[in-house]
Amino acid sequence: MDNQRPIGIFDSGFGGLTVARAVIDLLPEEDVVYFGDTARYPYGPQPLQQVREYAEEITDFLVAEHNVKMVIIACNTAAAAALGSLGDTLEIPVVGVIEPGAQAVVEVSTQKRIGVIGTVGTISSGAYQKTIQAIADPSTKVTCIPCPGFVEFVERGESSGEQIQILAQRLLDPIVKADVDALLLGCTHYPYLARAIGSVVGEDVVLVSSADETAFAVSKILKERNLESPQRKTGNRTFISSGDVSWFAELGQRLFGPELESAESHEWSTGS
Ligand code: DGL
Fold it and tell me: What spacing in Å lies between the alpha carbon of 1 and ligand 1's midpoint?
């Protein structure tokens, strides 16, 4: 039965766990397989073509080894690079984090001054700019800026402190100057830094994370395609890392919870 198969979720590392959390909270009965490509992270500074190849390889693995019924690209950089190609070639539904996030930020911005922050790869791809401009009122002003350095703090398990605050003040200066009323956290890691980001941009600015919106989009697609899990018990969760699995389990437990303790390893063969 198609609907009994798991949902596949992937990210370059830990950030996609924010999306996994939202999906599991909204759809607790679904089986989920999460893949963190920590052997090849970070994706943000890498060429989009390279990231597209990684995304295709992970998707092939999730389909071949776990027979997933849907793929969630829980990484903004990978979604910017590969959503189009994967959506065109796969027979199962593919959901990225960009469109749900863009939709949500347009909805909450009353002043039509929107900010978007993300990795260098995501911002330079223009994916958010394009998606927001396609759905927002033409008078909407969109300020998009890359925030190199944020991801590295999260991947080290740091989400607060003086250094983060100083970096946030420097990077977010154009967002503050643009006087935005809504700021989209266009990188899966940034919700972990929401406190620092919020303290710089001010409490009047609504912070939007793609994670919850993506979970709603996933729920809608499962319903429309008759793919909702028929089981009434809590779903099985599998967490896989392509890098150092003990580190993945340790930091993952801090960011996500105890389920990460039993994370599994998948090593890419040499040359991939
Ligand atoms: N997950 C990536 C994203 O959302 C950030 C981490 C990375 O650069 O790999 O863009």
Answer: 33
Q: What is the CATH number of the domain that holds 240?
A: 3.40.50.1860
pLDDT, tens digit (0-9, with 9 covering 90-100), for 69-94: 999 999 999 999 999 999 999 999 99
Residue identifier of the C-alpha nearest atom 1 of ligand 1: 75
pTM exceeds cut of 0.85 = yes
Q: Is residue 271 part of a domain?
A: no
Residue type, 52: R
Q: pLDDT exceeding 70 applies to what percent of the chain?
A: 99
Residue 272 within any structural domain of the chain: no
Same domain, 119 and 161: yes
Indicate the number of domains in the chain.
Answer: 2
Answer yes or no: do 92 and 134 share one domain: no
Residue 75 lies in a domain: yes
Whether residue 187 lies in the annotated active site: yes
Q: For residue 78, report the distance from its CA to the centre of ligand 1, in Å.
A: 8
Of 210, 233, 253, the position where a domain reaches its end is 210
Stated length of the chain: 272
- For the segment 207-253, what is each residue's pLDDT rounded down to a tens digit? 999 898 899 999 999 999 999 999 888 999 999 999 999 999 999 99
Of the residues 58, 75, 132, 255, only one is catalytic, namely 75
- Residue 58 belongs to what domain range? 2-96+212-265
